[in-house]
Structure formats: C-alpha cells, structure tokens
Amino acid sequence: MTGSAVDRMDGMDGVADLAGAEPQRGQASVVVKSVARCRMDWAGIESALCEVAEKLEVEVRHVRYEGEGGLCVIRGKRVLAVNDSLDTPDRVAVMAKALACVPGIEDVYIVPEVRTLLEKYGAEGV
After folding, report:
1. Mean pLDDT for all residues in the chain
2. Could you give the CA distance from residue 15 to residue 82 in angstroms, rounded to a whole number?
3. Contact 79, 71 (CB under 8 A)
4. Is residue 11 part of a domain?
5. Quick check: is 8 in a domain?
6. Which residue, 91, 116, 122, is CA-closest to 28?
7. Edge to edge, what strands does the sheet with 69-74 contain?
8. Under a CB-based contact definition with an 8 Å cutoff, are residues 40 and 16 in contact?
9. N or C, which end of the chain is more exposed by having fewer CB within 10 Å?
10. What is this structure's pTM?
C-alpha cells in the first residue's frame, strides 16, 4: 500500500522506503521525495525521533484529536503533540516535520538515517 505521506514498506526485507510518496487528504502534508533508503523500521524511526525530542527538551504527547499534530508551547515548555490515531509512518512524518525546525537540532547526535529524514523536512521549509 503506497500513497501516504511516506511510503509504507517497499516489500524488500522490511526496509522502509521514504522516497516518492504523495500526500493524501488527512495525512501528513509533507512529502519526502529524495531521501535514500532507510534501513530502520517505522517503530525504530519513531523511537529515534522521540529520543531526539527528549535531547531537545521537547515533550512528546500522543493524543487523540482531530488534526495531525505539531509543535507548540504550553506553559513555557515545548510540546510536540502527535495524533495517536495516525499510523506509524504518518506519526513519523508529523514528528520529523516539527523537530526539523527546532533550534539546536544540529548539535544533537542523531542516527544518520533519521538525520537525513530531518534534513529533508528542514530543506522543504515546513
């Protein structure tokens, strides 16, 4: 199944393919078009993004509501709200879109596959 904000799986050894996706209504709005193949599964990418958020002192909250989510400030603290009803690839897209623009991200160690994803979202200007 393809066509979400990021393609689901390429069918080869469970490798996530982050290239060539097209957005669908109600899913993450950013498209990753030219990211090299990622050798992590979606859960691993999501977990790595949560670690990045923690290093940047951004609280990640998985909540159910209408909308996808995004970065906000609540009582002076940065919070990344992610709609828990989204599937994992779309949660990853929401998280990457938000974290790509957080100041100081360039100073945090991030596994290369996830850094490539974040740089792509940052380059898209989203």
Report:
1. 75
2. 24
3. yes
4. no
5. no
6. 91
7. 59-63, 77-83, 69-74
8. yes
9. N
10. 0.69
